Each structure stands twice: as structure tokens, then as C-alpha cells.
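Thread: pyridoxal-5'-phosphate complex, take 2
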Amino acid sequence: MDNHLIPTYKPLPVSFKRGDGIYVWDNDDKKYLDALCGISVTSLGHNHPDVTRAINEQAGRLLHTSNLYHIDNQSKLADILCELSTMDQAFFGNSGAEANEAAIKIARLYGHQNNIDKPEIVVMQGSFHGRTMATLSATGNRKVQAGFEPLVSGFARAPYNDIDALKAIAKNNKNVVAILVEPVQGEGGIKIPDTGYLSAIRKICDENNWLMMLDEIQTGMARSGKMFAFQYEPIKPDVLTLAKALGNGIPIGACLVSGKAKNVFQPGNHGSTFGGNPFASHVAFTVCNIMKNEHLADNAQARGQQLTTLLKQKLEGNKEVVEIRNLGLLIGITLQHNCHELVTIALHNGLLINVTADNVIRLLPPLIINEQQTIEIADRLVKSINQFIQK
Ligand SMILES: Cc1ncc(COP(=O)(O)O)c(C=O)c1O
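Output below.
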């Protein structure tokens, strides 16, 4: 079937032909509830009328000009992102990996500007930052790196959610210029750190003149129950990377800076042909406005709470279930055993989910879900888990 595709993926044997709201339909017209959003991308659901209108409007007006010229739509997008995040400036690329590449380059440049010849960035075990050479080198997962050695150097590694380890690095390694960390490890298995973790990182960064760089590619854009997960604490980072839900399916990534990271990049230091073009910028600007005006962060918080409470009730006493946890609509359910098979069982039951870190069910439902649809997700998932256990 896929004779001419490089087999980088192992797709499930289903293909979707259309979507509407929280549902998608396959080629045989079977309907599925999409509780994964293309891995945290279509947070406004499928075929959102305002997004579709923005796409059509801008497609009929102007797609691309290049960054050789001023792009009004890009400036408007930077304005709203800085308003929502209280960051100062934005650079746009086309994916999460590119957003993190920009962050890594900023950290290195910042190091050199501060007379550190071999700058290092602290990254966390269990992290995921992308598949380009620099971002896979930053990633804390050997599976992602194996076979691609030599890795890009300049990364120091620490256990996640371990402030003492960061303090020890600060004491012993004078080449460090930045910390790059996810507020919740998504690919790593929806790992939620202790309250105060980000504030403690902020403090260490301030004490050592390091940049605090947050990868909110998965947690950002209202998914965590705040527009950005760092807003649960009274801090802000120096660098903030975004992608995924920013374009609701139109590829776009962003690297926002503030404080010490402001104006580190100067003309000629970085660039992207497509980055922030009139089309992607207009769509992302529309997405930001919808998320803000419809208070979707609040809905993510309420529905996340409802869904985890329901799952805890329905799965209480179930010996296969180790833990159910969430931050907004980032939901992880750890089972005793490897549960990749559950993806196929849920598919059969008309529910799209994902399994990460071998035994963690990951739910990333659209931020527009209502109470009734939340119950529907819980019912279908519990049915699927019970069928998995009986097998
Ligand atoms: C936290 C995080 N960072 C970076 C990436 C890479 O993003 P992309 O696949 O758009 O390059 C991902 C993708 O899953 C992610 O979850």
C-alpha cells in the first residue's frame, strides 16, 4: 500500500477522510471520537468554522512572500503571543523541532556573548525535544538517538524533577548557559513535576546567569489549563518554544524570548524560508484569538478535572491501573503492563488514543469538549481498558 514511502512510521490500518468538531470519519464512514488531536495539534477540533474561514480568506489573498519583506500578519501574531505569554519577541519556524533549534542557538550565542567558549545546556532525562540532530541530542531518550551518533555536543543531563541535581551541576560545571525543560514531560509519559519545580529552576537560572528555556510545544496553547503551563507559577522563562496547537494543523512553530534572551539574535543569525509566512501567521493569529476569547484554558481545566475524576471512579480497584494523573487536558494513565495493544482496541471502539513510554495511556482531547463528550471519552476508554485486561 505504501510502496513509495520511506517506512519511518508504522501507521495503523485506518485512514480518515473528514473531521468535524471532536469527531473524524474513516474511509468506510465509521465515526471516531478524536481524544488525541493528532498529538496535541487540533485543539480547536476539526473543521472549526473560524479557522476554516481564516484559511480560505488568507489562501485567496496571499500565501507567501519571504522574510525579505515585512510581514504584517507575522507582527500581529507576535503581538498576541507576547500579550498572552508576557514574553517580548518572537521568531517563527514551521515545527516544534525548529522552535527548539532556535532556542538552542540562542543559548549558545548567549554563552559566547558572555565569554563561555564551550556553552552547555542542561537537559532532562526522559525529555523529548524533536528529531533534528540538535534536538534529538537534547532529548533524554536513547531510542531516539541510537544510530545517529555522533550526537551534537554541549548538553549536560539531569534527572527530571530533581532540583538538587541542578544545584550540583551549577556548582561543578561552569560552561552551563541554560536549562531546557518541559513543564510536563509529554512523550516521556505525562510526567508532572512537583509544584514549585519551575520556580526553583527560575531561581537557579537567576543565580547563575543561565537562560531558563521552556519547551511548551505539547503543554502550551491552553492545553495545561493555563494558556502556558509556566503560568501556574509566579515566574516567566527567558525562552519559550511553541508549535503543535499553534496552527491547529497548519504547520508553525515559535520561539519567544524575554529578559536576558531578548535581542540575542541579530540579523543574519537565524532564518527560515517559510517561517511566519502570511498564511501560517494569519491562521495562528486566529487560533490564538479563539483560545483567548472562548476561555479554552478554563475549559481545559474543568474538563480535565471532570475526565480524571470520572476515570478514577470507574477504574477504582482495578489492579491493572497504577495511576491516573493530569494537568488540564494532558492526561496520563499508567497501567501495570505494556499496553500498546490498547490503541487498536480503542480504535475498534471508535476512540483515538495513544500509548507512550510503553505503559502510559495518553489522552490529549480537543479543548472544545463539553461535559457530555467528556463522559463519552471516559465510557469508551474504560470499555477498552476492560477488554484489554480480559484478553
Ligand atoms: C515537548 C516536545 N518538544 C518538541 C517536539 C517536536 O515537535 P515537532 O514534531 O513539531 O518537531 C514535540 C513533539 O512531540 C514535543 O512533544
